[in-house]
Amino acid sequence: MQTEPLTEQELDRLESLLYSDQFEGEAMPLDTLQGFLCAVISGPESIPSDIWLPLIFGEIEYETLEQGRELAALLLKFHQSLVSALVNGEDFDLILYGLEEDPDELDFASWSDGYVYGSQIGEVDWFETAGEFAHDLSEKMEVFFLLNGMLKEDAIKSKEPWLSAKEEKKLLAQAQEDMPDTVGAIYRFWRNLGTPVETVRRDSPKVGRNDPCPCGSGKKFKQCCGEKPTLH
């Protein structure tokens, strides 16, 4: 069964609802949302909508019941259109905004942040569950870890050598080119793996993006440990 992608009008409406004042800037922007949902759909477990829907805009209540229904309907259709594209191996347009400092340059970091976060919200640990194929998964995920700056941050934090400016620019350009194919490749990775021999669940409880970080910093999770997920 195929689900048509949202129309331009529907995407514009979804975007305006997510950016509305009622969410106080806490809702995911559309690019982050698309990355988030692609990961939710692609992983080794089925994550129900009552888990992922609240993570998109937190616990803030809708202004009206009608608005809540409209937003939920648009989000579910957006989700189903991505399911359809991934299941059928279809190309779909990535939602990418221009960088604030240079609108001519696309912001791949926000999309990648959403994907990495989406890979962490379930009960199942992706890398542990991948078992002997974890290295293959890591190679694919490095596209997102590179584009959201996490690999560079980890290298600097660990005082390890990093790429020259020229090498980094070349690697980022390649990662940007590879990202659409990588999304499909990770979806197929989990489908081809089938039912893992051992499903490894996370030791720590799930934390919402807007919840206080469990490390005790006083910051929200998305602005602290949730901003720099661990590369296995």
Describe the overall structure.
With 232 residues, the protein is mainly α. The longest helix is centred in the C-terminal third of the chain and has 29 residues, at 165-193. The chain contains nine helices and no strands.
Low-confidence spans: 204-209, 212-217, 227-232
From the helix content, strand content and strand pairing, which structural class follows? mainly alpha
Using only CA atoms, what is the Rg?
18 Å
Question: Which range does the strand content fall in?
Answer: under 5%
Would you report the number of β strands? 0
Helix content: 40-55%
Give the termini separation.
36 Å
Largest sheet data:
none
The coarse silhouette is globular
Order of helices and strands: HHHHHHHHH
What would the average pLDDT be, to the nearest integer?
Answer: 85
Number of helical runs?
A: 9
Could you outline the blueprint of secondary structure elements for this entry?
Layout: H1 8-18, H2 30-42, H3 49-57, H4 65-87, H5 108-118, H6 126-130, H7 134-147, H8 150-157, H9 165-193
Helix pairs in contact: 2-4, 2-5, 2-9, 5-7, 7-9
